[in-house]
From TrEMBL:
It is a multi-pass membrane protein. The chain crosses the membrane at residues 42-60, 66-86, 107-129, 141-160, 172-191, 197-217, 238-262, 268-286, 313-332. The keyword Membrane applies. GO terms for cellular component: membrane. Its EC number is 2.5.1.74. It is an enzyme of class 2 (transferase). It is found in: Membrane. The gene is menA_1. Keywords: Membrane, Transferase, Transmembrane, Transmembrane helix. Pfam families: UbiA. GO terms for molecular function: 1,4-dihydroxy-2-naphthoate polyprenyltransferase activity. This is 1,4-dihydroxy-2-naphthoate octaprenyltransferase. The keyword Transmembrane helix applies.
């Protein structure tokens, strides 16, 4: 066995082997439920729900299609898959999170590594069944290809051997692919009819606007990433350039979504609240970028941690106004 293989085996052992104090043999239902919700990052669920809704509204031709079993199966695949990624991330990063994100680390240790792994496996079975059933019903075999690529990138984000969250600037396209673009393509292919390039562009724009704001959450993790030598895109770019890139992604994404909606449905009224939410978010991000510019890392991180309290509000506003404008496009068909 080569040194690389030994190293890889050691990494897997470290992640999937219990460490520290053993969890209680019996957990109360309340504790089990609380920890299980924490590792799924249910605080992100209001935004996660928008991920299947936007492409569905852009692709569905009738309300019957929108409320169909195919849409339900696609939604299950998207939501549960994103939660699998969250659980895998909590499991892999439990030692890092013990310093700055103690709630996540406590949840993993409270459940125990074995229970977390079982929950991931059960969730993967649910996704596999739903994806297989949807593929059978639609006859769209490319759903398996999209789902397979999504699974590789999603699990490889935090886990060895890929560790895509530590690949510098390449982390960014993986984030877009895993959280928005591939789920969006999956939902688009759950419906009949040929794909529209405008709809695909809208999904990409939707990803740019959201990741553009979420940059703040990634940037505030700079100290722990540096401590554990995780070369994220934020460490590669530096705080100032990373937040500046967030402003650029948000702005470009809003332009792409607007242009795509105009192509699909014309200048619908739903663009008014959408553009207002985007302008509000751009103002927030630009002010944060100015506050971070030129500051040492510790002072910049302090600014970002203060700003990060408002970031979820902006992602929700942009996310749900994107749903609104997509609903207007659906109604215009």
């Amino acid at each position: 066995m080569t040194d690389n293989r030994v190293s890889l085996a050691a990494q897997w052992t470290e992640i999937f082997t219990a460490d520290g104090s053993a969890p209680p043999e019996k957990l109360s239902v309340q504790s089990w439920l609380r920890y299980s919700l924490i590792i799924r990052r249910v605080e992100f669920l209001p935004l996660t729900v928008t991920v299947p809704l936007v492409p569905a509204l852009l692709m569905a031709r009738t309300m019957r299609e929108l409320l169909s079993l195919d849409m339900l199966l696609a939604t299950i695949v998207v939501v549960v898959s994103i939660q699998i990624g969250n659980m895998a991330n909590c499991l892999a990063d439990r030692r890092m999170d013990a310093i700055y994100k103690t709630r996540l680390s406590r949840a993993v240790y409270g459940l125990g590594v074995g229970r977390v792994i079982r929950q991931i496996v059960i969730a993967m079975v649910i996704v596999g069944v739903a994806e297989g059933w949807l593929t059978y019903r639609t006859g769209h075999l490319d759903l398996l290809l999209i789902g397979g690529l999504w699974a590789v990138l999603g699990m490889g984000y935090s886990l060895p051997p890929l560790h895509l969250n530590g690949r510098g600037i390449w982390q960014l396209p993986v984030l877009h692919a895993v959280y928005f673009v591939l789920p969006g393509l999956f939902v688009l292919r759950a419906f009949e009819g040929s794909l529209s390039w405008a709809a695909i562009a809208a999904i990409c724009g939707f990803s740019l606007t959201n990741i553009g704001i979420i940059v703040i959450s990634h940037a505030e993790d700079f100290p722990e990433d540096e401590l554990y030598s995780v070369m994220t895109y934020v460490r590669t770019l530096g705080l100032t350039r990373a937040v500046g890139l967030g402003v650029a992604m948000l702005t470009l994404g809003a332009i792409v979504v607007t242009a795509s909606i105009v192509v699909l449905a014309g200048p619908v009224w739903g663009l008014v609240p959408y553009l207002a939410a985007c302008l509000f978010a751009v103002r927030f991000m630009a002010r944060t970028a100015r506050a971070v510019r030129g500051k040492p890392v510790d002072e910049g991180v302090a600014v970002l941690r203060a700003s990060s309290k408002l970031a979820p509000l902006h992602t929700l506003l942009v996310g749900w106004t994107t749903v609104v404008v997509a609903a207007f496009a659906f109604a215009a068909r």
